[in-house]
Amino acid sequence: ELWVLKWAELLQIRSSNQVSYKAMLLYYNWLQDKIARNVPVNEWVQELLGASGGTFKNPATNYYQNETDILKVTENVAQVFMGMRIQCAQCHNHPFDRWTMDDYYGFMSFFTQIGRKGTDDPRETVVFNSGSGDARHPVGNRVMAPKFLGGVAPETKGKDRRAVMSEWIASPENPY
User: Fold this and answer.
1) In 3D, which of 159, 158, 157, 154 has the Cα closest to residue 169?
2) Which of 74, 80, 120, 148 is deepest in the core (most CB within 10 A)?
3) Whether 53 contacts 7, CB under 8 Å
4) pLDDT (tens digit, 9 = 90+) per residue, 48-79?
C-alpha cells in the first residue's frame, strides 16, 4: 500500500472535474493490482505510457485524462519516469543543463497524436492514437520529429508514437 500511495501521487491519481470518480478508482485499482502482483515497473510503465482505449475498460488510459495539456504531459513524463526537469527548455535552452528547445519539442512530438473522444457514458473517455499532429518549434515554426531525450530520433511512421516512446523508456537503451 505504501508503494501504491507513492506511485499514485507521482501519477496524479485523483478525481477532478475532467475525470470521473469511477475512472480514477479504476485507475488506482489498476496500479494497486500491478504492484500487489509484483509486476516489474518497466512492464507496467510501458503499458501505462502506451495505453489506448476506454478509461473504464483500460484504466491506464486515465494517465492521459488527468492532464490533457501536451506541454504538461511532456514535462511530467520526463520528470516522473526519467528524473529530468525540462520545463526551462520550453522557452529557452537550459542554462545549467544539456536540454535545448529542440530536445523539448522533439520529446513533445511523442504526445501530439493523442486523441480523445466521448462514449455513451459521459463519465468515460476513449484515448487513442489520432495518427496526426506534430509539435512545432516556436522559433521558426518548423515541425519537430519525435526524438528521445538525449537519444536518437526513432522511426515512428505508421506507429503509435507513445508506444515507441514507452518501449524506449522501459528499455536498457534509456540511460535515465
Assistant:
1) 154
2) 74
3) no
4) 999 999 999 999 999 999 889 999 999 999 99
